[in-house]
Amino acid sequence: MTGPRFYIKHLLKITILFWGLSDCLLLKSQIFAQNHKPLPITFSLYQKEYKTTLDSSTVIQLPDSLLIPEKEVVQVDSLPWQLHRDYEIDYLTGKITLKSKFSKGSQLTITYQIFPFALQTTYFKRKLKVAEKISPQTDGSPATEVEERGVPINASPAPRFASQLRKNGSLTRGITVGTNQGLRVDSGLRLQLSGKLTEDVEIIASLTDQNTPIQPEGNTQTLQEIDKVFVELRGPHMQATLGDYNLSFTGTEFTRYRRKLQGVKGRAEFQNWEFTVSGAVSRGKFTTNEFLGQEGNQGPYQLHGENGEIDIIVLAGTERVWVDGQLMTRGENNDYVIEYGNGQITFTRHRLITADSRIVVDFQYSDEKFQRNLWGIQGQTRLLNDRVKLRTTYIRESDNKDNPLGFELTDEQLKALEEAGDSLAVLPGWKFVGPDSGNYIRDSTGVFIYVGPRSGDYQVSFGFFGANKGDYRKVGIGHFEFVGEDQGSYRPYIILPRAQSHEVVGFNAEFSPNNMLKLQTEVAMSQFDANLYSPRDNQDNQGLAYVFKLNFAPETLKLGNAHLGHFRFEGKFRRKNANFRDIDRTTVAEFNRRWDITRNITTREETIGEFQASYS
Question: What letter would DSSP give residue 454?
């Protein structure tokens, strides 16, 4: 039964379960206790792993049902298997059918995701009933209808709010056929809902059974995100969101936060206080690129990840672009366009780029190495007729180091990561494979020379270390050329991915005794672990920052009955120690230029005093 009543019952159950999850999140909000130890939150919201040894059976029954479609990773003896080619899966029942050949005794590993709450396979408002006639009574009374399964025939009608739900969407059917592949029938459903569930509860939802990797085009000011799926419930004082959403914490100096997430979010707002809680899987990492333009070159300019990597996917709509301190607007008729799939930005004719153009880009990107879990809480209260405002914010981002995405770490790699501490963990990328079995030869100085497939003695893998931090340059696919020490970007070493965690807690207070004076203070602590695989170099993980602000602006200066004009005074003192790590942007885009700071400095102790007075 899949009418409006189905969705009503379904979504009300989700609402109740969501508030139960919110209570659990509150219990996890004890942070920076004695010794400032990080919270031991390393589990995934809904990811599980199943391992078994294969026999002759080709059907595997997982212990869970109602799996999230196309989120599974299937590996046989550490080799990834591909959906439809190597196996089929029934997401409703959790049954997997193996199609490709395998050896008896092979190790099968399946990583999959489920919803973090119990769901039934069927929901209904009322049970189905069948009316049947009974022969006339012996006393001559007319025939009656029989109730089936205890449901009366004259049950009360559905609530009047069901008719207020607005529904629209699309249902698609398609057939795919091609060379070397069989006939396949494709289908897809997209459904949008909006309206009232009850007199006080409103619903907005976008649902789909499709899963597409297509990123929206970054050539318009407004994006059409075809993969955004969410259910949002709104009440007089509360709001709940399940699915894809944007989280924004504002009003602070060190705990500002903007992310594109997938999970659950709840918000409650009453007369004197507000509270927001979020538990999610973060879809990307935050980073900043700063670079100078090139004379006469409008682009494309390649964006890089935190460690200089270029094989990244920029999350659509997360970028903010400044040129010479001015915020740009996306769109072909505005300032720039961006290719999210390969992380390249191009400026339009409306924004000419020169060699002196200072370009700053904030964005979130996915490197598809680890799943990143996020917890965020912010509470605010107002006292004394809004003269006093108190705000507390806690944010934690952590990679799931126990379940890398699409790869497994060997014992040798884990040992290298453990010994690396906060430094890059690398392993030699060359391997001797014998005459005429590799692509490279090695000369007497140790330099690898490309000679072509099956013409050399070595197989060599190169890692990207950044501009002028390597000895080789990339010529083509699998072809690298030695260009001199520190003259290239690549080295014959494999860079091992490091799982990281980052958490920040902040307390903000604002006092306004009258309309002329406002005092603000904020204290924040951060905990950043650059390598969760290693206990080394943890002595510099914790950092502290604080800021004081004063704003004095009387409406008009008077001396007796004479008006002397307007006076305004602002003051700010800010301090961060070298170990404090920002979780988002905390300064203006032109901060480094204003204070003549080298942009390559990532950790530094900072003390700033600013004062400004004006008279008019």
Answer: T
